[in-house]
Design a protein that fits this description.
- The chain is α+β, with helices and mostly antiparallel strands and 151 residues long.
- The protein is built from two helices and ten strands; from the N terminus they run H-E-E-E-E-E-E-H-E-E-E-E.
- Strands 1, 2, 3, 4, 5, 6, 7, 8, 9 and 10 form a ten-stranded antiparallel beta sheet that branches.
- A hairpin with a 5-residue loop joins strand 8 and strand 9.
- It is globular, with a radius of gyration of 25 Å.
- It starts with a helix and ends with a strand.
- The model has no long low-confidence stretch (mean pLDDT 82).
Length: 151
């Protein structure tokens, strides 16, 4: 008789544990993606992302786009919302050297803080204490510039 009571208690605890897990653990999101000519949206387990493309010439980054730099594509500048945080982002290229671009932005951003992300292709990040940041990298004699301004 004791054996059946112990087995019953174990089964009750097991069922209660499974029920509690299903109740307290949120269901995982299924990845959802949609896009059109004006931008795209992604929603999934890692978070939410919305991008609305904007005209690079009309974007105010609070720092100038490097002289002569060109937008990577017509869709490389936009308003971005990542898990509720809003940014204006733009991607540009230049044939000038990475060191010239770094010097330019260090002069343009008051109180600039400069750091380097060491990886296969090192990336220099120059940021304003309370404003935009600029990321500069280079590959095959092309420099890549990404400007991010919190909104």
């Amino acid at each position: 008789m004791r054996k059946w009571i112990v087995i019953g208690i174990i089964l009750v605890l097991l069922v209660a544990g499974v029920a509690a897990y299903k109740y307290f653990m949120p269901a995982s999101k299924v990845d959802q993606f949609s896009s059109d000519d004006e931008g795209f949206c992604y929603s999934g387990e890692i978070g939410d992302l919305q991008v609305g493309y904007t005209d690079p010439a009309l974007s105010d980054f609070e720092v100038p786009v490097y002289p002569g730099a060109k937008a990577v594509s017509k869709n490389s500048t936009g308003n971005v919302i990542i898990n509720g945080q809003k940014f204006l982002m733009g991607s540009f290229t230049s044939d000038d050297s990475k060191s010239n671009i770094i010097s330019y932005y260090q002069e343009q951003i008051e109180g600039a803080i400069t750091g380097t992300l060491e990886k296969e292709n090192p990336e220099t990040v120059i940021r304003s204490p309370n404003g935009p940041s600029v990321s500069i990298s280079s590959k095959n004699s092309t420099s890549y510039i990404v400007i991010v301004k919190p909104l």
